[in-house]
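Here is an idea for our session: we take a single protein and study its fold together. To get us started, please write out a protein record for me. Once you have written the record down, we can walk along the chain together.
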Amino acid sequence: MPSQARLGIDLGGTKIAGVVLDHDGTRLAQARIPAPRGEYGATLAAVSGLVLRLEREAGRFCSVGIGMPGSVSPATGLVRNANSHWLIGQPFEADLAARLDRPVRLANDADCLAVSEATDGAGAGARVVWAVILGTGVGSGLALDGRLHPGRNGFAGEWGHGPLPAPRDDERPGPPCYCGRHGCVETWVSGPALAADHARRHGGVPTAEAVVEAARRGDAAARDTLALHLERLGRAAAQVVNVLDPDVIVIGGGLSRLPELIAGLPDAMRPHIFSDTFDTPVRASLHGDDSGVRGAAWLWGPETV
């Protein structure tokens, strides 16, 4: 076979996407299949089967990176914190490596967003890239000098399950979260959280998309919901910025498609930033929905292929 390339897999809740990238990022092959639900063995078989299929199509032997919900514990080697609950407690990395007869690298999907955008996306050339996913869930990842920074315990950037900063009386204890806590950042600034907040305050059973469209038409209630959502997001993001002071903030996920959010976030953060100056750019992810699968491929750095 010709020289080795990088293969990335984005393991989602409903689909599994895969891509093969050449050394310069050129796409050599790609595919998408439905994701099995509720069955660990079926998921393992689907991912390994897709890897082998993509290698055949690309005509290359590949390094393999996997982006997934949750992460792998460095202490046990088992999956933790995954909303695809059938992966929790399983040796997914070791089992995949055994099936594919090579080492694989696994990372959280927000980590893959960070790597993708720091490599050749909206954060390319920046030293410290903080990448945020705002979609069905909320998470973030950190890239330093273009490389993933997982942290000592493998959960750097786990932002969605901290508390909303400076909660007002009407924000306590906050909505229940699947993690068992109340008032997590994810329960306030995700897409479903936006819709749920509108329903609590104004009634109806809206979707986030419907609230945004109504706000754009000038609906006062929807505009009020969107303004409060942005204010909460500013509070939550500023807490991280005060610690990291990143060079750029990259937003991915479904809510990254809202230009109002991207444009308004710097001003929403500014009152909570402990500095006399704050000019950090906030950008939508350049690669959009492809960032996860591209970032998974880039988990293997240039020295490894």
